[in-house]
């Protein structure tokens, strides 16, 4: 399953449930998000996305504590590769992929993982769910559900997958999807052939009766 939960706000405090974890982060009027309202902390959007991702997988650090242990981002912020390295350094399995919502849905049937999507020119969001033609993303601290077609206008498929277990390669996943679609196509082709054969038999019998 894709790991992430639904954010709720109340009295200036964000309570985000991610799996069985509740994260409490004060929202100061300036300076970003901090667990200490008297000491605002400016946090890179990539760090926020990574924090939510690994929190959903069992990390219990505060946002302040987590961010303070990471190198300062460059002028353009952290890259997806940087986030992958940070997660790997904490013992998580990571995989940088060029993927799609269909592949994420297929993967979630057998794997539990968090997904960080890179949005041009340099922004990161967490993909929480892909259901039919809808995708739900968390752009901390907001959560939005939108048509996949709309999301794909900004997302080219680049993503970071993070898990406590090994992650299958995108190539093996694509091959599995292709095999599944080919099998469905063969079934439909067989059904169409059976219907055509039955039609010819009925037509021949009808002509004999006449």
UniProtKB/TrEMBL annotation:
<keyword id="KW-0812">Transmembrane</keyword>
<dbReference type="GO" id="GO:0008233">
    <property type="term" value="F:peptidase activity"/>
</dbReference>
<feature type="domain" description="Peptidase C39">
    <location>
        <begin position="36"/>
        <end position="162"/>
    </location>
</feature>
<dbReference type="InterPro" id="IPR005074">
    <property type="entry name" value="Peptidase_C39"/>
</dbReference>
<dbReference type="GO" id="GO:0006508">
    <property type="term" value="P:proteolysis"/>
</dbReference>
<dbReference type="GO" id="GO:0005524">
    <property type="term" value="F:ATP binding"/>
</dbReference>
<dbReference type="Pfam" id="PF03412">
    <property type="entry name" value="Peptidase_C39"/>
</dbReference>
<keyword id="KW-1133">Transmembrane helix</keyword>
<dbReference type="GO" id="GO:0016020">
    <property type="term" value="C:membrane"/>
</dbReference>
<protein>
    <submittedName>
        <fullName>Peptidase C39 family protein</fullName>
    </submittedName>
</protein>
<feature type="transmembrane region" description="Helical">
    <location>
        <begin position="183"/>
        <end position="202"/>
    </location>
</feature>
<keyword id="KW-0472">Membrane</keyword>
């Amino acid at each position: 399953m894709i790991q992430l939960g639904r954010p709720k706000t109340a009295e200036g405090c964000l309570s985000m449930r991610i799996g069985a974890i509740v994260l409490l982060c004060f929202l100061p009027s300036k300076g970003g998000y901090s667990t200490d309202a008297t000491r605002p902390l400016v946090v890179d959007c990539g760090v926020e996305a990574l924090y939510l991702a690994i929190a959903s997988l069992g990390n219990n650090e505060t946002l302040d504590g987590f961010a303070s242990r990471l190198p300062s981002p460059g002028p353009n912020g952290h890259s997806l590769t940087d986030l992958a390295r940070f997660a790997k350094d904490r013992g998580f399995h990571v995989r940088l992929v060029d993927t799609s919502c269909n592949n994420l849905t297929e993967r979630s049937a057998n794997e539990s993982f968090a997904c960080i999507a890179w949005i041009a020119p340099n922004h990161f969001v967490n993909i929480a769910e892909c259901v039919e033609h809808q995708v739900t993303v968390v752009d901390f601290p907001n959560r939005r559900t939108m048509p996949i077609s709309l999301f794909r206008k900004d997302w080219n498929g680049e993503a970071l997958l993070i898990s406590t277990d090994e992650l299958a390669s995108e190539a093996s996943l694509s091959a599995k999807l292709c095999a599944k679609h080919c099998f469905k196509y063969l079934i439909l082709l067989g059904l169409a052939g059976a219907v055509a054969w039955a039609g010819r038999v009925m037509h021949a019998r009808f002509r004999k009766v006449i």
